[in-house]
Amino acid sequence: MSAISPTLELERRLLEEFPFVIGLDEVGRGALAGPVTVGASIIDADVARGEVPDGLRDSKLVSEKRRPEVAERTAAWVRGTALGWATPGEVDERGILGALGLAALRAIIGLREQGFPVESAVHLLDGDRDYLSRVAFDQLGRLDVRTVVKGDRDRAAISAASIAAKVARDALMVGLHEGFEAYAWDRNKGYASAAHREAIRAHGLTAHHRQSWAIAPAPPLF
């Protein structure tokens, strides 16, 4: 079965009303270790008049080998991309939705630091939960945030954010693998593989784990 390609249909309609569309998507939400990461990709009407980059899909539908190539091509297509991160400690402190909101805010601020007027954009957030608006209000005021179910699959701006976040977070988890080889983060990227769970049972939690998720009774060892 062929993968579904995202379109620019929604973005083109919105760009008749807004100067920019910002797509946002998260990775790492269900992981046991590592940060949550939110990508934000911004496009304008000139971008939307063109074609979706070859190979762009929801990052889950692109092979790990091809993702860096597609992410590089996509980064050259959009007007700008930024990433926001929330640490395992912030997941513990704020809960997963609060941490996602914090990461999304940091991504939006990253775009603003690149010179984009993010307050005047419409923000397309993958999923059915708006975890951005409340967190962003104090710093950015009221943003126009629209949740889009299956947006990472169907909407090109969100797909662009998805693949940028996935490639960056995967690279971080591979880097963290050194010194914590038992947990196999180079393969599972912090998610709950059998090897990862067995390593937690054998060695306990590290500082890179989300302690509040009660994934092992042992105290942190590192």
UniProtKB/TrEMBL annotation:
This is Ribonuclease. Endonuclease that specifically degrades the RNA of RNA-DNA hybrids. It catalyses: Endonucleolytic cleavage to 5'-phosphomonoester. Manganese or magnesium. Binds 1 divalent metal ion per monomer in the absence of substrate. May bind a second metal ion after substrate binding. The keyword Ribosomal protein does not apply. Keywords: Cytoplasm, Endonuclease, Hydrolase, Manganese, Metal-binding, Nuclease. SUPFAM superfamilies: Ribonuclease H-like (SSF53098). Residues 19-222 form the RNase H type-2 domain. InterPro entries: RNase_HII, RNase_HII/HIII, RNase_HII/HIII_dom, RNaseH-like_sf, RNaseH_sf. Its EC number is 3.1.26.4. PROSITE patterns: RNASE_H_2.
